[in-house]
What does this fold into?
Amino acid sequence: MSDLYTYVMQHDSGLAPNPFWGICTLAVCTPNHQGSRAKRGDWIAGVSDKKRGYKLIYVMEVDERVHMNDYFHDERFSAKKANLGGTAQQRCGDNFYSQDRTGRWIQHPNRYHAGPECLAQDTRNPWVFVGRRFWYLGRKAIDMPTDFLPMFGGRGARVSHPSELVAAFRVWVQVSLKKGMNALPRDFEDDGCSPPSSAVTTKSTRVSGIC
It folds into this structure.
């Protein structure tokens, strides 16, 4: 049976996961940082923190595990590139790392993860999880049946769950939730906002740099 990775999301800005443009991607968050090896067919689920009641924010089924440099150069994911002068969706793009000819990582301008500390953390395990089948709830995050709560909480991404509980969770998601993007991210900026200045970008990095 495929695995289920679960983790707690401190922020839901549209960066990680990035649910826009018809594809859900996870590039710079807890499962990536700790080197989770989610493969095709595995599922990833993120919930709000304990204070917000571990509400379900999203679930995705992994189609691909793409190297971050390939992700940047693949035309399929060009819409995911961060564009600080674009719309709110474009400003929170998660596709902003590439390598030069020597293999050195380049951090392209982005709203949330700027500076050498983020670069080192984000590229230590440079893999992006891609899912075309996903259920993203964002601001409409919901309570789950209590039976599933033991799989969520704690630090890092958890994967050692009872197989029968994972199977039941997968059935519940497919029966109870509508596929695709159901709402905007909880912490998403309004489309009417002006593009951030460098000062705002720096502040956002300190506050929201860790998903």
